[in-house]
Write a structure and sequence with these properties.
The chain has 19 helices and no strands. It is an all-alpha fold and 445 residues long. Helix 3 runs antiparallel to helix 4. It is globular, with a radius of gyration of 22 Å.
Length: 445
């Protein structure tokens, strides 16, 4: 790994940001595809009950994964600070304590997911005929949750030192292994949801093992000693940053479940239309998400190096890049929603409802790039408590109330429900702008 490539404190911001962001974007695209493969394979070669089991079970596993990934973000931010300030000793201690912490969390989660799989499946209102399939999927994935945690921790460490190339390679390996495993176990051996779960865990295990082999040959800017593998005083440092993000992810996932419940009450076509639109929305959000992740690492190094003006310029660069691409995504979502929806569905009622939601959601493609750039900027400063707070205010003061009111109308429109997202984002931008000027006035950034 070349130091000049991973040193974000010098050189042209736009060029370095793009080079760092592209592998992150590629990894997010592969992760989106990775998440769709299980459903596609079971849908093509499995049973309806198996498909329901994978759909419900994966939402449970994703909730756990997203929360843990948010927690591990503290590693990325702190490591960027330590690398920027050349404090490699603290970096080793922090990573050592993080490894031990996530190992214990993984063991506890493994037991919890295996033991409580059935009560959780029933809490999620899994159809009665698919409860056993859901339980099977959750228990198998729960048994391999340590591999899923290990992959995300390794990726956070690499992004913290400025290397976004290797996480892309690791997720590509996992994606290919998952496709091969799914086809073999589901299409050939007809193992249904169990085959999908085994393929998922197996792919993550292969990716983790290969990543450890590759990392052993990389020259890393820190060293982990045996005594660092303990609950030292750096544990609280990364948890202080990561915990608010983890809580934010938890609340966000819960709010999405509530939104689905609102729309499900409208009817089958609306429910299906939102499901299709949500797949498209996932890809619309890839650019803003990759920018936010990139800015967190990029800005953390500059904050550690005391280059606040460069950190500010990086945020503005991210906003301009994201909003420019967002304008294109806006026009595609607003004017081409039906054509894009045809890729995922054949039912005309579902397609019409999907396009309807996308028209209301479309402005989000532009405004979210601005909001996510602010979030990356504040995360890079370690102000994740504020990032969590503003996200929860958006969700519970604007997004959910607006969606609920729109869904409660006599003839509810998915376009109006879709506007809840951009309205909440504009509110979030207002909060971030106010906090930015407050911090500048108090000279705390």
């Amino acid at each position: 790994m070349e130091n000049t490539a991973s040193d974000f404190t010098e050189g042209r911001i736009a060029g370095k940001l793009i080079r760092f962001m592209l592998p992150i974007l590629g990894a997010l695209v592969l992760q989106a595809a990775y998440g769709a493969v299980d459903v596609l394979m079971v849908g093509w070669f499995g049973t309806t009950e198996g498909l329901s089991g994978v759909s419900t079970g994966s939402s449970i596993i994703n909730l756990v994964t997203f929360v843990l990934t948010g927690l591990a973000t503290g590693i990325t931010v702190l490591l960027g600070n330590f690398i920027g300030s050349k404090n490699t000793e603290r970096a080793g201690k922090m990573i050592g304590s993080a490894i031990l912490f996530f190992l214990i969390v993984g063991i506890v989660l493994t037991a919890a997911l295996i033991i409580f799989a059935e009560p959780v499946a029933r809490l999620m209102k899994a159809p009665e005929e698919a409860v056993d399939n859901t339980v099977s999927y959750v228990r198998i994935c729960g048994g391999g949750i340590l591999f899923i945690i290990a992959y995300n921790v390794i990726s956070c460490i690499l992004r913290g030192i400025g290397n976004s190339r290797l996480p892309l390679i690791f997720v590509a390996i996992a994606c290919v292994a998952n496709i091969i495993g799914d086809y073999t176990l589901i299409a050939i051996f007809h193992m249904d949801e169990a085959g999908a779960a085994i393929a998922t865990v197996g792919a993550q295990a292969i990716s983790v093992i290969l990543s450890l082999i590759i990392l052993s040959k990389e020259k890393l800017p820190f060293r982990i000693r045996r005594k660092d593998l303990s609950f030292n005083n750096e544990l609280g440092s990364f948890l202080k940053i990561g915990a608010p993000i983890a809580l934010q992810e938890l609340m966000t996932q819960i709010s999405f479940l509530a939104l689905i419940a609102f729309i499900n009450n409208i009817g089958l076509a609306a429910s299906g239309g939102y499901g299709v639109a949500n797949k498209i929305v996932t890809f619309v959000m890839l650019i803003p998400s990759s920018i936010m992740q990139s800015l967190s690492s990029f800005i953390a190094q500059n904050v550690g190096a005391g280059k606040e003006d460069r950190a500010k310029k990086t945020m503005i660069t991210g906003m301009c890049m994201g909003a420019s691409i967002g304008v294109i995504m806006f026009f595609l979502a607003f004017f081409c929603g039906e054509g894009i929806s045809h890729i995922f569905a054949t039912d005309e009622g579902v397609i019409v409802r999907s396009a309807e939601y996308l028209r209301g959601f479309a402005p989000e493609a532009v405004v979210t790039a601005i909001l996510f750039s602010f979030m990356g900027y504040f995360s890079g400063h370690g102000k994740t408590l504020f990032v969590m707070t503003q996200s929860m205010l958006q969700t519970f003061l604007v997004r959910l109330p607006v969606a609920y009111v729109m869904a409660s109308q006599p003839d509810p429109s998915l376009a109006m429900i879709g506007t809840a997202a951009p309205l909440a984002t504009v509110f979030g931008i207002f909060i971030n702008v106010c906090y930015y000027f407050y911090c500048r006035k108090k000279r705390i950034i």
